[in-house]
Amino acid sequence: MSYVKCVNNMPYLFPPGEPQQVEPLVSLVMGKVYKTLPDLPAERHGLIRVIDETFGESGSEDGYLYPAEYFEPFVPNDNRRMAATVTVHLDEFTQGVLYAEATAADRSVSAFVREWIEERLDLPVTA
Hints:
Layout: E1 2-6, E2 33-37, H1 40-44, E3 47-50, E4 64-67, E5 71-73, H2 92-104, H3 109-120
Antiparallel strand pairs: 1-2, 1-5, 2-3, 3-4
Helix pairs in contact: 2-3
């Protein structure tokens, strides 16, 4: 998996005969981290395939191409190992539901939540 951080979100395509857009692209947010998809032909042309803010809309399943210089590589903690713990603050109702579900599954709440997260999230692999 590869991640990048957006460092430029200004328009880069200017169709002939149309006024130049000066507003930032709504599909990219400055400073936000995006997942990239491999695309060797695009990379040869200085482009990068990114899953942007439009993901989920029709036609966005494969991400979109942007100039590579609009992004910088993003590596958590400057190549250091990612933190092994996460602190989550939950309201009383959610805590109760998690406790009840964990008890029904004969697991601790932390083990139950870890299992639930691992089943549903595509987290980066740490070395």
